[in-house]
């Protein structure tokens, strides 16, 4: 579930115990050039269930049609007919004014939540994983007592409380994260201990911010939300009409170049940072490009790079995507070389990539070129799968590439090399090679071997040896990805959960009454 797609209703919950643990550490329609003519406001159409919303993040309008707002602002949504962009009115308190501020316009739907809903609370973090909750809580800006409430991973429809406190480890004090499973009984409410039962989570939070009452620490401030979601599109207009005027783009800084063109950091409409890929004339048939761009436009997931727009009416063709400021994962790893990135960060990288690939798997798409060079790094340790130029929809689980297609042999599964036929299981093989790249800080797989030598050795059962700094458990996951029989290889869904839970095998969960179980 992606919470920022639907934020209108409460979920039912059932809890059966308080447990804690310690953790250290489409193309829709024919493409048409942007005319620059402002879109008329849609007729007012109030959502059936709830039309008052609260802003979760600041938003600075990108176009004249947009409505700017600040986190905490109240808005009345007038039209929700467009999935990613809603038409709304800013509601100001009596006597309050904002000189020069327009009061109606389009807003990104994933920046707001229904007023008085759990999603509107600063302490609610939705479907973040346990590992991500720990990472966000341990940011330097948070102090002891910082907390969040999230959806439980192990018990769907239920909630967990996560908070940070000090604990002595050997001779030093350090912050660590503790997690509590929130119990709920339909007739009673939410509780950690039955001596204090609350009808909703709001009084639950109020109580534990005034009294620790069995918790490791009294709750103070909600965890700071640093991860701001990317809007689905550049603007309301580009959601369906995504051929844009190239004069609306400024190329600011060259980020890299390759066989098919260059990548630039740029600015759209003088407001929005973007990445711009320029394709060399003749490097790709425009019809093939548009067909492949449609794939990117339709696939939406937090761990996949979002395509915003294209410029195809003249050469060079431009591809406009969200900007990931730290470049490719390959370069990121090579530049770090172990100075800041260690095993927990490496496992997190792999888990985020597996999450994006699990989504592709669920949509019956295959990537065909999964490698560290095609994963991009953003702010706050966000990693996203990129470069869908080779992505294809599976037809009966197999895609047959054109004979002239060049293959990245060292990342390609043996059956794909032999027959030129790809499946999601050949992507799993490539993921195993990506794990090798991550754990070795970007080293070349099969170092010293030519492509033909790799093919010969793989046919004889050879596999990359375990790197010196690679834990046995992680290497075993690599070997599973490199099973000779594709059907035996794990799914990306399985890989995602294995990596999310990587360091949690022996975690003890303790309720507030001191009872322990093993997760």
TrEMBL record:
Domain spans labelled SH3: 48-117
Binding residues annotated for ATP, in chain numbering: 277
Keywords of this entry: ATP-binding, Kinase, Nucleotide-binding, SH2 domain, SH3 domain, Signal, Transferase, Tyrosine-protein kinase
Family: Belongs to the protein kinase superfamily. Tyr protein kinase family.
Name recorded for this polypeptide: Tyrosine-protein kinase
Chain ranges of the SH2 domain: 123-223
SUPFAM superfamilies referenced in this protein's UniProt entry, alphabetically: Protein kinase-like (PK-like), SH2 domain, SH3-domain
Catalytic reactions on record: L-tyrosyl-[protein] + ATP = O-phospho-L-tyrosyl-[protein] + ADP + H(+)
Signal peptide: 1-17
Entries under InterPro entries matching the protein: Kinase-like_dom_sf (IPR011009), Non-receptor_tyrosine_kinases (IPR050198), Prot_kinase_dom (IPR000719), Protein_kinase_ATP_BS (IPR017441), Ser-Thr/Tyr_kinase_cat_dom (IPR001245), SH2 (IPR000980), SH2_dom_sf (IPR036860), SH3-like_dom_sf (IPR036028)
Domain Protein kinase as annotated: residue spans: 249-499
GO MF term set: ATP binding; non-membrane spanning protein tyrosine kinase activity
Its EC number(s): 2.7.10.2
């Amino acid at each position: 579930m992606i919470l920022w797609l639907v934020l209108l209703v409460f979920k039912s919950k059932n809890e059966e115990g308080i447990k804690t643990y310690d953790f250290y550490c489409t193309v829709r329609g024919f493409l048409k050039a942007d005319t620059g003519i402002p879109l008329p406001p849609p007729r007012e159409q109030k959502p059936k269930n709830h039309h008052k919303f609260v802003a979760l993040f600041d938003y600075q309008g990108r176009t004249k049609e947009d409505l700017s707002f600040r986190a905490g602002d109240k808005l009345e949504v007038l039209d929700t007919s467009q999935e990613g962009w809603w038409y709304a009115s800013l509601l100001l308190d009596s006597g309050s004014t904002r000189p020069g501020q327009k009061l109606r316009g389009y807003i990104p739907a994933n920046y707001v939540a229904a007023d008085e809903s759990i999603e509107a609370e600063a302490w609610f973090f939705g479907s973040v994983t346990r590992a991500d909750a720990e990472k966000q809580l341990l940011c330097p800006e948070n102090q002891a007592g910082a907390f969040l409430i999230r959806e439980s991973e192990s018990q769907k429809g239920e909630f967990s409380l996560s908070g940070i406190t000090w604990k002595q480890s050997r001779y030093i004090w350090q912050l660590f994260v503790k997690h509590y499973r929130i119990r709920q009984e339909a007739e009673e409410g939410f509780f950690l201990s039955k001596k204090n039962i609350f009808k909703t989570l709001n009084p639950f939070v109020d109580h534990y911010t005034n009294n620790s009452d069995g918790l490791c620490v009294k709750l103070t401030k909600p965890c700071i939300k640093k991860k701001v979601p990317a809007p689905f599109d550049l603007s309301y207009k580009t959601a369906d009409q995504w051929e844009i005027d190239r004069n609306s783009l400024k190329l600011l800084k060259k980020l890299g170049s390759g066989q098919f063109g260059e990548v630039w950091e740029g600015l759209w409409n003088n407001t929005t940072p973007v990445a711009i890929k320029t394709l060399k004339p003749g490097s790709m048939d425009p019809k093939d490009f548009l067909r492949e761009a449609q794939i990117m436009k339709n696939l939406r997931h937090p761990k996949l790079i979002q395509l915003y727009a294209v410029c195809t009416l003249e050469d060079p063709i431009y591809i406009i995507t969200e900007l990931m400021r730290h470049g490719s994962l390959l370069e990121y790893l090579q530049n770090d070389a172990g100075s800041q990135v260690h095993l927990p960060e490496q496992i997190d990288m792999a888990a985020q990539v597996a999450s994006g690939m699990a989504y592709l798997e669920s949509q019956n798409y295959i990537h065909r070129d999964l490698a560290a060079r095609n994963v991009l790094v953003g702010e706050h340790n966000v990693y996203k799968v990129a470069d869908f130029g080779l992505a294809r929809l599976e037809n009966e689980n197999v895609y047959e590439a054109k004979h002239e297609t060049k293959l990245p042999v060292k990342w390609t599964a043996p059956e794909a090399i032999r027959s030129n036929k790809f499946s999601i299981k050949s992507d799993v093989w490539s993921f195993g090679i990506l794990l090798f790249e991550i754990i070795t800080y970007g080293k070349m797989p099969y170092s010293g071997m030519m492509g033909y030598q790799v093919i010969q050795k793989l046919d004889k059962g050879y596999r990359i040896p375990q790197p010196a700094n690679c834990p046995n458990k992680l290497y075993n996951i690599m070997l599973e990805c490199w099973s000779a029989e594709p059907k035996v290889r794990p799914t990306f869904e399985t890989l995602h959960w294995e990596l999310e839970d990587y360091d949690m095998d022996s975690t003890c969960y303790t309720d507030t009454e001191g009872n322990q179980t093993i997760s």
